[in-house]
Amino acid sequence: MIRKLTEKDIDKLFILEKNCFFDYWSKNMLQDELKKETSYLYGMFEDDNLFGYILLSKCVDEVEILKICVDVEQRKKGIGKRLIEFSLEDIGKISSVYLEVRKSNTGAIKLYEKCGFEKIGERKKYYKDNEDAVLMVKSL
After folding, report:
1. What is the C-alpha to C-alpha distance for residues 136 and 116, in angstroms, rounded to an integer?
2. CA 134, CA 89: separation in Å to the nearest integer?
3. Which of 42, 50, 68, 97 has its CA 20 to 30 A from that of 20?
4. Could you give the CA distance from residue 71 to residue 52 in angstroms, rounded to a whole number?
5. What is the DSSP string of 47-71?
6. What is the CA radius of gyration of the chain?
7. Per-residue pLDDT tens digits for 61-105
8. Domains (ranges, CATH) in the chain?
9. Reduced to 3 DSSP states, what percent helix, strand and coil does the chain have, rounded to the nearest 5?
């Protein structure tokens, strides 16, 4: 089941965040996103377990995917694709969706391409470790 995340989910969200990312966001940063009117945060649950989440930011009719995370043991099961599809449908009328992804993250790039995203450029030395980011967009 996919649903919007709330303050009650913050502990589970933070645990998943820490398990998925080397350079993870703090609990306070995640709580701040939950409070923003422009942020949309959805989670994939089975029973009471959080297996994945997506964080998006909306400005007028454009959306940026800021984060997407799926538990390591739950990857390659379509959770990421379902999170993307559900969230974009739930947000409402939008014209385009943008994201940046590590150039080395070929699994994520393949997922985004399956969801209709196209590469439109690179951001050199975008990440703290100087890795480049691939800029992708999906027009709706």
Report:
1. 10
2. 24
3. 97
4. 6
5. TTEEEEEEEEEEETTEEEEEEEEE-
6. 14
7. 999 999 999 999 999 899 999 999 999 999 988 999 999 999 999
8. 2-139 (3.40.630.30)
9. 35, 35, 30
- In this structure, are residues 89 and 95 in contact, taking their beta carbons and an 8 Å threshold? no
Residue 22: per-residue pLDDT: 84
pLDDT at 23 over 90: no
Residue that has been written with the tokens 């992804």 in this structure = 101
Q: Where is 79: in which H helix or E strand?
A: helix 79-91
Cβ atoms of 65 and 99 within 8 Å: the answer is: yes
Sign, CA dihedral 9-33-54-130, equals negative
> What mean pLDDT, rounded, does the chain reach?
95
The encoded tokens of residue 31 equal: 């709580």
Which three-class secondary structure state does DSSP give residue 123? Answer: strand
pTM: 0.93
Q: Is the pLDDT of residue 50 over 90?
A: yes
